[in-house]
Amino acid sequence: MSLVDRLLNEYAAAFRAGDTDPWPYLDQVDGDEREELDRRMDEFLSKVEPVAWDPEAYAGSPAARIVDQIMPSLLVPQGGWRALLPSLRIGKQIKREKVDAELASALDADSPQEAEKVATYYHDMEQGNLDPRGVSEIVLAALSGIYGTTVEELRRAGAATGPPGGAGDVVFARVVGDTDEDFVLSSEDRSGFTRIKGEPDRIDLLFTDPDYDDPDR
User: Long-range contacts of range 182-188, CB-CB < 8 Å, 24 or more positions apart?
Assistant: First the structure.
């Protein structure tokens, strides 16, 4: 049995027992194995019957008290977005394709090319390969709506992600000057657009300029 198979089986057993946190398992692998485990967790969740929520039974329960005690630390987990975003997504049993589609819709990414770019940027956020300081409030507001959290909580977790280069030796650089200069995101990840020619478009700015105020919205 491969390491990914073992971790998936352990996660599935923990999930059925009520523990939906994926991070203890994702944290044991990196690179291709981590992406494979993440994908297979998605597949597992797509086949699991959602558990009915009973707010009356939850209120005042031991689980509720534990959540109240540990929630502050969970909001800024070790690893920042790289830990928090997959945890939120898998905990809510949402496949990444659905997050990609909802985020693209919220950002008015109407063309297939824009939607694909949004998905790639979000992938980089989950992998810790995007500088959190550059992500606009517009993107964070959209994600907070998808995950039922707040912009402030996402921003705090982003601050815990660490400086660029902390995940996968990623180096970010913005070349400022004439519009015919390159807008560079130098990275070893497989984002598919580590170098953007010419002036960045509105999707690039949404994810790389914290002060960007989208005129099309």
Answer: 183/208, 187/124, 187/129
